[in-house]
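pasting for ref
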Amino acid sequence: MELKFLLLLLLFRWAVAPKPNVPKIGSDEDKSSKAAEICLLQPRAGSGSKYIRRWYYNLTETACKQFVYTGYDGNGNRFRTREACEKVCAIQDVQQKDESPCNLPVDHGPCRASIKRWYYQQRNDICVSFIYGGCGGNSNNFEKKAQCKFQCVKNKGQLAPFEACAQPLATGYCGGKIGRWYFDTKDRKCKYFYYTGCGGNSNRFLTKRDCEEKCFEELKTFGICGQPPDRGPCALNILRWYFNPATRTCEIFRFSGCDGNSNNFVTRRQCERRCLRDISCNQKMEPGPCRNFSQKWYFNHDTKRCERFTYGGCNGTMNRFKNEMACERTCIFTTDLPSAE
């Protein structure tokens, strides 16, 4: 009898004792968790006969997507607008001015899936894995460690100024819709685009003015070799060469035969001798701040020779060549040829 009484007492205490990490029924946390659970459901078209566009949360892509709802049955993973879907399910974007995901704490989100992700840990300047619940959370949330390191880790060094502007448009891989500006190297213009909230690259600016101040000022340092290709107003179709500072190479364009600008060369060799020599050989050697060491060559103005140096892997200047021959071909064994100025 006493044993039964003790067992009943233990069961009663276990039943009434608070469970760790379990939201209290009816609490805001509990409601939030239950609301978020619909984000883990597979979309259901239903059994009706209508054709209604709706939005659902795609757990695999962690983004809101459109689907067709038939008007009857279905489930809770169904929203009238993308905004409504993102409000409940998507990774929430940063609200601060710089909108850097690297400044945010890790956030597992309210759902209960088990997805391996990576977040940036500011204290140690490293990327650490964590278990993401599948919905909600914030943008300090990366699918791959490499994405996290590229975006956040400081000791990898920073890009050289124009290298950021030269990167291609990258909207990222999350579900947000944030207005930003990027530099279009082909049109030489700063253009508006929507950033998704995570991923992407350094060619992303808060305002058009920020973009122009960063990228246009750098273009000026290239002189005539920084001018955009200009075919001119005439009717001919002549193959010419221009220097592209984004790729640091001479590329083909079509010249109409009149006007245009001075970044216009009859041959590739003329273009390279004028632009690569003027830009690369006249800059000082800089090893850069990173530690991904490799052997490179640079032109030494004092000795008038190409010499070896240890490059750190980021930043530096254009006075940097893969081997001695490339350095000598650009900076020493060349004669000045007339350009199409």
